[in-house]
Amino acid sequence: MIGLGRMGANMTTRLMRGGHQVVVYDRNPSAVSTSVGDGATGSGSLQEMVSKLQPPRVVWIMVPAGEPTDSTIGELLGLLQSGDAIIDGGNSRWTDSKERYQRCKTAGVSFIDAGTSGGVWGLANGYCLMVGGDDDAVTRAEPIFTTLAPEGGYAHVGPSGAGHFSKMVHNGIEYGMLAAYGEGFEILEKSEYDYDLHELASIWRYGSVVRSWLLELLELALKNDPELAKVKGWVDDSGEGRWTVQAAIDENVPAPVITLSLLSRFVSRQQESFSAKVIAALRNEFGGHAIKAE
After folding, report:
1. What angle do CA 177, 179, 181 make, to 5 degrees?
2. Which residue of 31, 114, 209, 237 has the smallest Cβ count within 10 Å?
3. What is the Cα–Cα distance from 69 to 183, expressed in whole angstroms?
4. Across the chain, which distance is largest between two alpha carbons, in Å?
């Protein structure tokens, strides 16, 4: 396991609990020490990590998408042998995964893209895994996938790129669901009624058509902070929403909900809206409407 952040460390622990022996590496030595304390075999470099694995090796990468994943694969290809396999479990763009598949294939190394969902709760609940790659490579690594996933939560969904494409769309759907919950609870909060938002979130978990794990997590958040006073309404995006919208455009698929949920995240990060300033100035010019000064 390369990368022992919030996901990688917990995945390592779940694998070891399932009877696997795991050699770990992270640029942060303390993260390695923590996993070693849980029973993993530590290493101080990628070279050392590879040397501690018996061929045919399986190496799981759990590092940020983009250059960190690319450079890690580049270094690994100088260390691995024909017959070894690399699994990318991060949120990589599916087109990048197809290119990496070809790059690895040239070196005789299998490449598997594993869309991984479960977050910080995956250790206890398991991880939903959408896996793309060649049949023989996926079959060989399947004991890893079935250990990480809960029953019914793993599938080999197609060839190279299919795993990360399906995870991309999964996250795009998540964007829309999060936005709907956010808008609905704001309407409730601004209404004339003094709702107990935690109570509503709680009862909606039972029998309601809008019940979901996300609603369960919202109930937990409202229980700990009923007015979300400790939370700033600033929402980042890690790329998957943008890629989903781009795929929708490329495929001529109307996806207004996911698109608007992405754009609303952009709005959340603005200290001041220049667009709103333009509108206010225009209303003043054509209609004499009042302007609120800075």
Report:
1. 70
2. 209
3. 35
4. 77
Give the closest residue to 87 by CA, choosing from 107, 110, 67, 108. 110
> What mean pLDDT, rounded, does the chain reach?
96
pLDDT value of residue 9: 97
Tracing tokens 């609870």 back to the chain, one arrives at 185
Q: Of 13, 5, 60, 65, whose CA–CA distance to 30 is shortest?
A: 5
281, 286, 291, 294: CA torsion to nearest 10: 20
Cβ partners under 8 Å of residue 243, min gap 6: 93, 94, 168, 172
Write the DSSP assignment of 209-220 as a string of letters: TT--HHHHHHHH
Residues of the chain with pLDDT > 70: what percent?
100
Q: How far, in Å, CA of 29 to CA of 7, rounded?
A: 17
Tokens matching residue 147: 């250990």
CA angle 227, 229, 233 (to 5 degrees): 100
Per-residue confidence (pLDDT) for residue 69, from 0 to 100:
97
| Strand bridging mode 128-132 / 110-117 | antiparallel
Nearest Cα to Cα of residue 121 among 224, 214, 223, 204: 214
Beta bridge partners, 61, equal 2, 88
Give yes or no for residue 294 having a pLDDT over 80.
Answer: no
pLDDT digits (tens, 9 = 90+) for 90-132: 999 999 999 999 999 999 999 999 999 999 999 999 999 999 9
- 56 preceded by cis ω (within 30°)? yes
Active-site residues: which are they?
A: 167, 174
Alpha-carbon separation of residue 185 from 215, 220, 227 (angstroms) = 11, 14, 11
